[in-house]
Amino acid sequence: MPFAFLATYTTRLSIYGKAQHLPLSQALIEFSGSRKKAQLLALLMPIQRAAEQCEWIAAMIESGEIYHLLRWQVEDAIHLLDDLPRIEAAGIVVRMPAQWQAGRPARPRVRAALGAGAPSRLGLDALLDFHMDVMINGEPLTAEEIRAMLMVCSGYVVSRLR
Keywords assigned by UniProt (predicted)? Predict the structure, then answer.
């Protein structure tokens, strides 16, 4: 499941009052020349501050990847989300897809139903009578989808799902 990443900047508003975003590589062209060097440095300063806090941003600057559209894997997007407070504290505004509530991806929701059936007596069947669903945006996930999500996230233990 790839994600797209593009570092942009804004220089003006559209006629409708919305910020017009341009790829960061365009800033190198727009602010080239000695008279605009201070503007370019001011634009890149928040990125430099973020790179001091996040090694992966420093690596993107060093390689020049920060200036290009990138295809990210889930692990790359997780780095961004984990470091979001540091990135925003450096002065960078992070834009996320609209369906990611409050700038975060949809969180899995777990619903459990206990004791759906009335047991005839107290026993193992009564103790293990439950049903659990995991959903994202109201859509139930399969056991394989849950397993794949857990495998990607570090720090989780994946148990056998049925």
Answer: ATP-binding, Helicase, Hydrolase, Nucleotide-binding
Helix 55-63 vs helix 37-53: crossing angle, to nearest 10: 140
137/107 Cα distance (integer angstroms): 8
| End-to-end C-alpha distance for the chain, whole angstroms | 23
Q: Could you tell me the pTM of the whole model?
A: 0.57
Q: How far apart, in whole angstroms, are the C-alpha atoms of residue 15 and residue 22?
A: 16
Residue 121 gets which letter from DSSP? S
Half-sphere exposure of 10 (CA within 13 A, CB side): 12
Domains of the chain, by residue range, sit at 3-102, 106-152
Q: Can you tell me the distance from the alpha carbon of 125 to that of 130, in angstroms, rounded to the nearest whole number?
A: 10
Average pLDDT by stretches of 10, the chain with 162 residues? 82 79 87 80 90 94 92 87 89 76 58 61 64 75 78 50 44
Token pair 């009578």 is found at: 129
Residues 6+ apart with CB under 8 A from 80: 5, 72, 87, 94
